[in-house]
Amino acid sequence: MANSQNTNGHETQSNGQRMQTTIVIGCDGIRSPIAKWMGFSEPKFVGHCAFRGLASYSGGQPLESRVNYIYGKGLRAGYVPVSSTKVYWFICFNSSSPGPKITDSTVLKKQAKELVENWPQELLNIMDSTPDDTIIRTPLVDRWLWPAISPPVSAGKVVLVGDAWHPMTPNLGQGACCALEDSVVLAKKLARAINSNDTSVEEAFKSYGSERWPRIFPLTIRANLVGSALQWDNPVVCSVRNNIVIPKLVRLGPLLEHTNFTSENL
């Protein structure tokens, strides 16, 4: 993982120091300098922001092992136990702009609680059990990889992985999952290139991009559309969504089909 400043991909910058490299794998996140150098656009703000936090219970968290969602008008929240003592929660709200960056955790917690002050007490209790320093507020962004328009995933021996290439909103829970999938596919392609004389590293990178794009592009769009639907603020539309679409038309099996990924052994 490094920041490339050289068009041949051999020389990189990391922490201000220069180093010689044979291959550069850019897995440096949403604001990737490597992606910028390769010509990718900045991720686009999608119109809503999220508070996230991690509640802590030294004596053991009290919730059942299931995901809980609450839907409002232009506002939604969710929480789920992630260990015997920790509960993850989020609040997603509409916003006309990303807003200022706030680092004061006390302010962040206050703002988050004000959004849901009349919501179920269980959610408020979880927020009260959250150490201030675990709370963050982030604008949600994505980047759509249009065919024949977006730059390729690789340039010579420089290649992108995960959020550096395809940032997506968290509405399907697939951002980190897709980054892991990228890594598995890239490792296979690169290993074959290194262990044989039939394929170059550059060809391996191009093959990786060709295999991953048909999965990444639809997931990014789907995540965006799902998030937009869940953030509706029209009262009539929200009533239809909450009372008909979610309880009667949305089935968990088909909804989670996008999480299926099968890979050969490395």
Point out poorly predicted stretches: 1-12
Along the chain, the helix and strand elements come as EEEEHEEEEHHEEEHHHH
Radius of gyration, rounded?
Answer: 21 Å
CATH top level of the largest domain is Alpha Beta
Proportion of strand residues: 15-25%
CATH topological fold name of the largest domain: FAD/NAD(P)-binding domain
Assembly status: single chain
The mean pLDDT is: 87
Give me the count of strands.
11
Q: Report the CATH architecture of the largest domain.
A: 3-Layer(bba) Sandwich
Main beta sheet: strand number and arrangement?
5 strands, antiparallel
Q: Shape, please? A: elongated
Can you count the helices?
Answer: 7
The portion of residues assigned to helices is 25-40%
GO molecular function: FAD binding; monooxygenase activity
InterPro entries: FAD-bd (IPR002938), FAD/NAD-bd_sf (IPR036188), MOase (IPR044560)
Pfam families: FAD_binding_3
Keywords: Monooxygenase, Oxidoreductase
Key descriptive features of the protein:
266 residues; 11 strands; elongated; FAD/NAD(P)-binding domain; alpha+beta; D-Amino Acid Oxidase, Chain A, domain 2; 2 domains
Can you offer a commentary on this structure?
- The protein is of the alpha+beta class and 266 residues long.
- The chain folds into two domains: 3-43 and 143-228, FAD/NAD(P)-binding domain (3-Layer(bba) Sandwich), CATH 3.50.50; 45-141, D-Amino Acid Oxidase, Chain A, domain 2.
- It has seven helices and eleven strands.
- The protein has helices spanning 33-37, 105-115, 121-128, 175-195, 201-230, 235-249, 252-255; strands spanning 3-4, 11-14, 17-20, 24-26, 44-56, 68-71, 75-81, 86-94, 136-142, 154-155, 158-160.
- The strands form three sheets. It has a five-stranded antiparallel β-sheet with strand order 6-7-8-5-9, sandwiched between helices. Strands 1-2-3 form a three-stranded antiparallel β-sheet.
- A hairpin with a 4-residue loop joins strand 7 and strand 8 (86-94).
- The longest helix has 30 residues, at 201-230.
